[in-house]
Design a protein that fits this description.
The complex is a heterodimer of chains A (410) and B (337). With 410 residues, chain A is of the alpha/beta class. Chain A has 15 helices and 7 strands. Classes of the chains: A alpha/beta (410), B alpha/beta (337). The interface between A and B is large, with 45 and 43 residues.
């Protein structure tokens, strides 16, 4: 008689159950030191299995990573707070627009704003992100014009991509944001290739790969880690662990792995695991990793530990597979609330100013949205020329595309 | 001019580009120090350095994925997949990324990339060293697909492919790496040194993509072929005594429909020959295009001589590989009034 039994990982709670995050260990803020920039994989084990946190439960910035940030003035933190509020306002308005049929599709990043907003502010011009569809926060923090961002979502004549791409599949080379593909994982190894190009040319620029917890199961996650391990290019490999891949609990992607960060150690790549809802931890670790890569110490992997508060997309209903109020029970809280609390504690912010900022930002976003909608929406389209279908398939249209365009009447 | 094998011609093309363009970079499995399992990159690492020519892990998706990232930045990677049969782990990167990058980013990012891969049968390569997967690439908008039949064209087309602003799938018929093959497998091999196609300029020259070549002028029947089959068809026509006009397509995508239709409208008959399996193969596309463009000129049904719709066998190599005898039968059949 065989005693072999298969394992089928399941989440701690389903819709009819109370949220349960008791299995998640949340280490004390400030517990981990700042490693040297030439940290190797073996020595990074405590960082890959622990969690770097700066803000404690009261909102104080504590420990070596707070000291690493130095005499941090209020200005960059207030800018980070505004970035996140702006991101949240855009998500809110665009979710609304989708519900009104003004755009066909949208994806929020609620709860994950700190990661992209913080990381982007530590990059330099010329550095290139290889994002997924849930890193619009990189664009917000890169001060990408909302007109272009929303134009893409509405596929109107402000769309830099001329209506060819599904909403949220942005591309903004001048803002360090590589063209998003619907095919998961592919961009992770491309980021390594781009970084190899940076090194070969001696540009001093770096690349940043982005992937979600579910997509770490894709072939190209392995391809990227192995390639980065072989050639040691200046790349920061980010894993955003938001606990869910559509309806699939993160344990299905993780299997018996210790953490996603720990996977890098097997490739000889050092890795850090970070509280993704702690804006100060995000900017501190981003700064460390980006400087490390730029100074020629090779690749590094960062697992950002966070929670996907919103539905996967506007086509998804998370109440079908997880408790309705699971986000409220998430032990790492909300990134906006935590930074707000910290700034108030420092005396650099107040509840009043926060409410005022929220209203101002929502007003600004709504004003841009209305102006963009004047250029057409799904409800009220001002169509882009169908000839755009054929432009850019190749640098020059070959004869068969010229014939097809003529057949269409253009 | 020099006499070169196809291997030497391909190596010369890469050497010329490595020397003239610092953005050109060569990588793949065993292409670096060792110089490639077919010797196509022999000596290139020693001459141009490890940063320009290097070995990769055995991971086709990484080879192409890294190349897409580099090409997007403005480099010109010319990468190798050891056998076309092993390209499939990279299919996602080729078809969903490289092919679409320019279009989906509205030109913000482009993909000037060449993917070289030895293709085709006739070498007792069995199931995974003989396939001809060209149709799996000609079906993908945004790719160019090239396959040379002579050393001269191999060099000129490869330089053109490396200089092309779009991704190019560059298929190299390994059966004719060392000499033309006429379908006679009795043992007597022919070197490129005794063939006009082995005359290759030493420096820089291009054979433009998208242009077919009339391999042999004729009035009786048009034969459309590419790669090894150009030479097999030539032998078959001679054996059958048919005045065939043999067109070496050279580029499958974009297709030189002008040269094809001019020939078929002249002869009124056409046989398509390829090694790849028949159903939904590239021959189907050729026949459909000719039917649309030449219907009123046709004097006989369009015929195909192809590999059978079965995985490429080992022991039955010459029963599978389209033989001169099969092609000759088709030429005589299509020539009947």
């Amino acid at each position: 008689m065989s005693t072999a039994r298969l394992s089928f990982p399941r989440p701690p709670a389903r819709p009819d159950q109370a949220p349960d995050f008791s299995a998640i260990v949340v280490p004390q803020a400030g517990a981990l030191p700042v490693p040297p920039p030439d940290l190797d994989a073996g020595a990074s084990r405590p960082f890959a299995t622990g969690m770097i946190r700066v803000l404690d439960d009261d909102g104080r910035a504590v420990g070596p990573w707070a000291e690493y940030l130095g005499d941090l003035s209020a200005e960059p933190l207030l800018r980070g707070l505004r970035d996140m509020l702006r991101m949240r306002a855009v998500d809110r308005r665009m979710l609304n627009a989708q519900r009104q049929g003004k755009t066909s599709f949208y994806l929020q990043c609620t709860g994950e704003e700190a990661i992209g907003c913080g990381f982007q502010r530590e990059l330099s011009p010329g550095d290139m992100n290889f994002p997924t569809y849930r890193q619009q926060s990189l664009l917000i923090a890169a001060d990408y014009p909302l007109e272009a961002l929303m134009g893409q979502l509405y596929s109107n004549d402000l769309d830099p991509l001329q209506g060819r791409q599904l909403p949220i599949m942005h591309s903004a080379r001048d803002h360090g944001f590589f063209s998003i593909s619907g095919n998961l994982g592919t961009q992770y190894v491309q980021a390594v290739g781009w970084a190899m190009g940076c090194a070969l040319r001696g540009t001093g620029e770096i690349a940043a790969g982005w992937i979600g917890d579910g997509a770490t199961a894709s072939n190209d996650f392995h391809s990227a880690l192995l390639s980065a391990s072989v050639y040691l290019p200046p790349v920061v490999l980010n894993v955003v662990n938001n606990q869910w891949a559509i309806s699939t609990y993160t344990g299905v992607a993780a299997g018996q792995s210790e953490t996603y960060a720990a996977r890098a150690l097997g490739y000889g790549i050092p890795a850090l695991r970070v509280d993704g809802n702690d804006y100060l931890a995000v900017i501190a670790v981003s700064r460390w990793a980006i400087e490390r890569a730029r100074n020629g110490h090779g690749p590094v992997l960062i697992e950002w530990f966070t929670y996907r508060v919103a539905a996967h997309s506007t086509s998804d209903d998370p109440t079908a597979y997880r408790p309705r109020d699971e986000a409220k029970a998430w032990p790492l809280g909300d990134p906006v609330d935590r930074l707000k609390t910290h700034l108030i504690l420092r005396g650099d912010w107040s509840e009043d100013r926060h409410r005022q900022a929220e209203a101002e930002i929502l007003d600004e976003v709504t004003t841009v949205q209305k102006a963009v909608e004047a250029h057409g929406t799904f409800v009220d389209p001002q169509p882009i020329s169908p000839a755009e279908i054929f432009r850019g398939v190749y640098a020059e249209p070959p004869p068969h595309l010229r014939r097809q365009r003529q057949e269409m009447g253009f | 001019m020099a006499r070169m094998t196809m291997i030497e011609a391909l190596r010369s093309a890469m050497d010329v580009k490595l020397a003239s363009d610092p953005s050109v970079i060569i990588f793949g499995e065993d292409v670096g120090y060792f110089g490639g399992v077919f010797r196509c990159t022999a000596g290139l690492q020693a001459r141009h350095g490890e940063e320009r020519v290097f070995d990769t892990p055995i991971n086709e998706s990484a080879i192409v994925g890294l190349a897409v990232g580099m090409a997007a930045q403005g480099m010109r990677p010319c990468v190798e997949i050891q056998f076309a049969d092993y390209v499939f782990p990279a299919y996602d990167q080729i078809t969903q990324e490289a092919a679409r990058l320019r279009h989906r980013s509205n030109g913000q990012f482009t993909c000037p990339l060449v993917i070289r891969m030895p293709t085709g049968g006739g070498i007792f390569g069995g199931q995974t060293h003989s396939q001809s997967p060209e149709a799996l690439f000609t079906h993908v908008a945004g790719l160019k697909v090239v396959i040379p039949a002579t050393p001269h064209d191999a060099k000129g087309l490869l330089i053109a492919a490396i200089e092309d602003p779009d991704p190019v799938i560059f298929l190299e018929p390994k059966r004719i790496y060392n000499g033309p093959f006429y379908g006679d497998h009795s043992g007597k091999s022919v070197p490129w040194a005794s063939h006009d196609g082995g005359e290759v300029p030493e420096g820089h020259f291009v054979v433009p993509l998208g242009q077919a070549r009339v391999h042999r002028e004729g009035a009786g029947v048009t034969v459309l072929a590419y790669g090894t089959m150009v030479h097999v068809a030539e032998a078959a026509a001679a054996a059958a005594g048919v005045d065939a006009e043999i067109i070496d397509l050279r580029t499958l995508l974009p297709l030189d429909l002008e040269t094809i239709t001019a020939s078929v409208q002249k002869t009124g008959r056409c046989v398509v020959v390829h090694e790849a399996t028949r159903t939904s193969g590239f021959g189907a596309e050729l026949i459909a295009e000719i039917q649309e463009a030449c219907f009123w000129h046709l004097r006989a049904p369009l015929l195909r001589v192809t590999g059978w719709d079965a995985p490429y066998p080992h022991a039955q190599e010459w029963d599978y590989f389209p033989s001169p005898a099969r092609i000759a039968r088709a030429l005589l059949e299509v020539g009947k009034d």
